[in-house]
Specification:
single chain; alpha/beta; 3-stranded antiparallel beta sheet
Length: 316
């Protein structure tokens, strides 16, 4: 399978390298008026450029909070710098996935990797953050998704934004904790909160605007922006009602011979439970129930990796 087209331009981030917070590529702006500390993060994954375009734009616009503190981060910049259009998936990370490191036992361990070093450098930023928006994009084409985590407060925040249309409720990855699930963000008794937005396929033309609009709505929700800035830039056109999908199953590839048995795409719904979804070597993989929703089915099946997540629409 050929790599998808690169439809977006990569911003030159070197002008933001110094930061103004004591940490490279971390920019912080504080209002005189008290308010929450909101962080908008780009480049948790190095090749997911849409968030970098959104934060680059906010910095160029010289965005200032009207209350509280706003932090804009470019996380795995060293991975981003290695982006190569001829091998565009390689720059997701350097040594290991930055988004599987977010538990104290990993962060406090004696283990070393370049991604873990950057995670440790940025950890104080997240420890000081009340509300985090983590901007991502997806390997394969799929409508934008909010990943709300497993707590009710995450779901409420996703609904409060009003976009994207589809909200995914899931517990993350067995391979390690995501930043969106780090510490207080995943504690139901703590008001601090995080939301991850997948803005579409990594390099599709529409993803940066999805990221920008998610950032604007996030900042609006927390009362951080002045009305004139929002009026000028927020897309206030009517949106479809949001729907939540609860992930129930993760299909992990167990052989070198995995193939989907029917055409699949992001958010394909398979009406009949027990339908043949894929063949994994000698094993048949079937849908677990009626109206199973396929989340991010892979186009590049590899043994040991996730083929697809399966969920169902839930109403609240
Ligand atoms: Zn990502």
């Amino acid at each position: 399978m050929n790599a998808p087209a690169i439809e977006v331009e990569f911003p030159d981030l070197t002008r933001w390298a110094a930061g103004n917070s004591g940490i490279p590529y971390v920019w912080r702006f504080a209002a005189e008026r008290a308010g929450p500390h909101v962080t908008i993060q780009a480049l948790t994954h190095g090749n997911e450029v849409c968030g970098a375009i959104a934060n680059d734009w906010l910095l160029q616009e010289n965005v200032q909070p009207v209350r509280g503190t706003l932090t804009l981060t470019f996380a795995n910049v060293d991975a981003f710098r290695r982006f190569d259009a001829a091998d565009p998936f390689a720059s997701r990370c350097l040594d290991e996935d930055f988004n599987r490191l977010w538990s104290a036992d990993v962060l406090d361990s004696a283990r070393h990797s370049r991604d873990l070093a950057r995670a440790r450098e940025l950890r104080p930023v997240y420890d000081e953050t009340d509300y985090l928006l983590d901007l991502h994009s997806m390997t394969d084409p799929c409508p934008p998704l909010a990943l709300a985590g497993r707590q009710q407060k995450g779901l409420e925040l996703a609904f409060a934004l009003g976009v994207p249309e589809h909200i995914v409720i899931d517990a993350g990855h067995a391979a390690g904790k995501r930043l969106r699930d780090y510490a207080a963000f995943d504690d139901p008794a703590d008001p601090r909160n995080a939301l991850l937005v997948e803005c579409g396929q990594h390099w599709e033309r529409t993803a940066p605007e999805v990221a920008k609009q998610a950032a604007l709505r996030f900042l609006r929700h927390f009362g951080m922006l002045d009305a004139a800035f929002l009026d000028a830039h927020l897309d206030a056109s009517p949106r479809p009602a949001q729907r939540a999908i609860e992930i129930t199953d993760v299909v992990t590839i167990t052989s070198d011979d995995f193939v989907f048995a029917q055409p699949v795409a992001g958010l394909t719904v398979i009406a009949k439970g027990g339908s043949l979804l894929a063949r994994d070597g000698a094993t048949d993989v079937r849908t677990p129930y009626d109206d199973a929703v396929l989340i991010m089915p892979t186009r590049r099946p590899r043994k040991g990796e996730t083929a697809v997540r399966i969920g169902r629409f839930v109403t609240y």
